[in-house]
Amino acid sequence: MSPQDVAASRFAISPLNETMHAMWMLSGRLEAGAHASWAAVARPRFARLLAGSPGARAMVALFRQGAYIADFIAPPPTGINVSFAEEIAAMRATPLERARTEIAMSLDGRPPPPADVMEILADDHVVAFLADGLERTWTELVAPQWPRFHAILERDVIQRAGRLATYGWAAALGDLGPRVRWRPEEADAPARIEVAASGDRDERHRLGGRGLLFLPSLFVRKVIAYLDEAWPYALVYPARGVAAAHPRAGGAAALAGLVGRSRARVLAELETPATTTQLAARLGLALGTAGGHLAALRAAGLVAGARVGRRVLYRRTPLGDALVAGRLDS
């Protein structure tokens, strides 16, 4: 990474990538983990979607752990806040020959999928079929959850960008996982990011001043690298605060009698820092209502706010942590 790459690197959120990873999880190829409650409800609906969508079935057939999956299915976004409609339009514009090449690479070295799936994958309209499967999954399963999902992803970006601005790249990337390491500039080598991958290949990529795109994800468990010249170079990484993606019934019940149900929910949600807008989206509150609860909790010394750029990020104070954990021993 040259100084120009460091300056050009940025964070982004991709609804298309999250839809693809949601399909991966709902199909059983990824463990549900923190999404278990949502998966239990969504999987029967996803099964019905698969039954009626040849493209969705073909998409699921391409998923496999620890091996190449066609890049054109969910390319990195070209902007910071690109909509699903813009991303799926770019995916639909994939040239057929490129799609066929990547599908062949994805199927290489594995048993062929069922005949009906192979028929879709070999069809001249395969890109449209796969895009239709993605779009149905987005519309029926992911879009209703997107305000909550987006709030968590945006919270990760704001917090990590704040660490980057304050402490530098090593701090911002240090908790992406043991597979990722930031190496500062040395006398005989430029600054670089090292990503350990499965297998014995040793690849080196020069960014050439265009920087690197960082995409948080609610569904992935380890860092995924996009290193295709046709798209922006990108790293998809596990977002913080995924456990908050699906509210747990009664999670803040012990606090409700003391501070009220809504403020108890706000305190419980601030397990990871958030803005007023993120809290409102996450909890289904009006923006003014969320702001009022935060002001009351702040006045009581239970939360504190810190400015990051043009936003204020709220977090629990030690007193707030102790109250939520039930450790008010003194």
In short, what is this structure?
The chain is of the alpha/beta class and 330 residues long. The chain contains 15 helices and eight strands. It folds into three domains: 103 residues, no CATH class; 131 residues, no CATH class; 79 residues, Winged helix-like DNA-binding domain superfamily/Winged helix DNA-binding domain (Arc Repressor Mutant, subunit A), CATH 1.10.10.10.
How does the SSE layout of this entry go?
Blueprint: H1 3-8, E1 10-11, H2 15-26, H3 36-52, H4 54-62, H5 84-92, H6 96-107, H7 115-121, H8 126-142, H9 146-167, H10 169-173, E2 180-183, E3 192-195, E4 213-217, E5 224-226, E6 234-238, H11 253-259, H12 261-269, H13 276-283, H14 287-299, E7 303-308, E8 311-316, H15 318-325
Parallel strand pairs: 1-4, 4-6
Antiparallel strand pairs: 2-3, 5-6, 7-8
Helix pairs in contact: 2-8, 3-4, 3-8, 4-7, 4-8, 5-8, 9-13, 11-12, 12-14, 13-14
Descriptive account of the structure:
With 330 residues, the chain is an alpha/beta fold. The chain has a four-stranded mixed beta sheet. A two-stranded antiparallel sheet has the order 2-3. Strands 7-8 form a two-stranded antiparallel sheet. It has three domains: 3-11 and 149-242, no CATH class; 15-145, no CATH class; 247-325, Arc Repressor Mutant, subunit A (Orthogonal Bundle). Helix 3 packs across helix 4 and helix 11 packs across helix 12 (261-269). It contains 15 helices and eight strands.
